[in-house]
Amino acid sequence: MEKNNKNLNLILAGQFVSQVGDKFYMLALSFMVLHTTGSTAKMGMVLAAALIPSLILGLVAGTLIDRCNRKMIIVGADFFRGIIISFVAFFYYVGFLNFYMIIISQALLSVNSAFFDPTVSAVIPQIVEEDELIKANSKHQFINGISTIIGPAAGGIFIASFGYTMIFTVNAVSFFLSAIFEMFLKLPSNHRKGKIKAKFTKELVEGYRYIFKDRSLMILLFTVGVIHFFVGYIEVLMPVLAISFKDNGPQVLGLLHASFGFGSILIALVLSIRTLFFDESKALFISIFLIGIIFILIVIPEIFSIKSAIVYLPLFVLLGGSIILAGVSFKTLLQKNVEIGFSGRVFSIASSIGNSSIPLAMIIFGFLLEFYSFHNLLYVCGLVLLPISIIAYKLYKGSNNG
């Protein structure tokens, strides 16, 4: 167990360093593109370039993750991300960085993420005992939550104090440091003894067959799509809710984000210290049920004409906590039930489903908000989530019992 803890700590240390640097970078890049071009459309293109390649590659990247040395994928992805951002820093410093270079760099970073993110999730069950998976995933989520808060806050100060070149350089260095931490990982093989590697296309098809023949796995992948879809609505909801407070909109938006982040970190911290009182499947579907309840509760202040931001803050704390509980439970269920030799493919597909659900939700709900109030949409979403959570849980339990 000592060796396993060392491996996990190396991954967490590398993740913390690189994620804080990455939050610096994305904040700086968004501001720079908007400031230099004055175009929100171009800023959107930059964000899309960071997402689309990983969505597409996620459908096939898992096969390579299961075929290749996972340590080399993790180390190599962070190393190449450091190189890519080093070029961005250099070209910005000499005055040659243009919009198209930024798009290309974002696309290349997205390619690396398509391999790195699922590999980390697939590796965790190889380096910790099964009964420690919840704690390990919670620690990983806690690191992500802390970096999400520290990164943008510190990034804004760095931009004002040191400029974009320093921000880009710091992010490049953070990825190199992360790669150095990860070089000391000692991972067991992800291949079954005596198994000969098949052709890439055959293993790709084999991975999809593995998923489609497992009913419980299909239900879990459907569930991750549902969770991320409604997370996408929350991203749209918060600024719309904040604007309803008129002059205090920016302050309210900051409070909502802070409350949501606090709830996320709090639950991740608790789960990293204590184990769940019930199994992960119950935790997953209970958390989805809670999200539905919270959606409905957010409507209540509007019904009674309560115009105080304070009443919303505890609800967003609960919302952030419920989403983290769902995410940690989902990841742990996959890690426990998916064979190591298929885990790269499964987590890669799960990542694509989750990452595509959020922007899809933003587009759909952004359109619907042109015609319906956010309160009505919240109420409907809450009523939809309640039966989905119950039905999905019964189906999941039924598939396992069968």
Distance between the termini: 34 Å
Task: Kindly provide the name of the CATH class of the largest domain.
Answer: Mainly Alpha
Poorly predicted runs of 5 or more residues: none
Rg is 21 Å
Output mean pLDDT: 83
Query: Helix content range of the residues, please?
Result: over 70%
Tally of DSSP helical segments: 14
Rough shape?
Answer: globular
The major β-sheet equals: none
By DSSP, the count of extended strands is 0
Structural class label:
mainly alpha
CATH architectural type of the largest domain? Up-down Bundle
Strand content: under 5%
Number of domains: 2
Q: Could you state the order of secondary-structure elements as H and E?
A: HHHHHHHHHHHHHH
Query: Could you give me the name of the CATH homologous superfamily of the largest domain?
Result: MFS general substrate transporter like domains
State the CATH topology of the largest domain: Growth Hormone, Chain: A
Molecular structure report:
- Helices cover 84% and strands 0% of the residues.
- The chain has 402 residues and is an all-alpha fold.
- The protein has two domains: 2-185, MFS general substrate transporter like domains (Growth Hormone, Chain: A); 204-401, Growth Hormone, Chain: A (Up-down Bundle).
- Helix 2 (40-49) runs parallel beside helix 5, helix 5 (99-127) crosses helix 13 (340-368) and helix 9 packs antiparallel against helix 10.
- The longest helix is centred in the N-terminal third of the chain and has 36 residues, at 2-37.
